[in-house]
Amino acid sequence: MITDRIAKIKNEFLQFPDWESRYKHLIDLGKKLNPINEELKIEANKIKGCQSQVWLSAELKDGKIIFCADSDASIVKGIIALLVFVYSDSTPDEVLSTKPNFLEDIGLRDHLSMSRANGLSSMLKQISFYAMAFKAQLLMNRK
Length: 143
Description:
The chain is mainly alpha-helical and 143 residues long. The protein has 6 helices and 2 strands.
């Protein structure tokens, strides 16, 4: 469940005493991210508004969204890995109703440069767009 994944992330990050340790953990999350298929690294899957290259793709399986992503920058890859972990395997409604407050709770937003913060906002927008599109698709299929 999405709330369980958020609780896990909060517990993980709050164990670290300083932001240097948290950044290392973020980079480790990025290293553990399942690799995205190369054919998904296309312009249509690129997140606009990121200084680094970030690709995000999604599919709907059994009513739940499965995200996959990648980036060419280690911290940014960790950020997208964090978002994929939290939001993937959730229904469109769960994604749309779960605000990213956990990012403030773990202090991430306060420790990002302006360009990374803008990139994070763009990633969150794209996740919401996927959720809205899949929600509309599910509604259309019911008719």
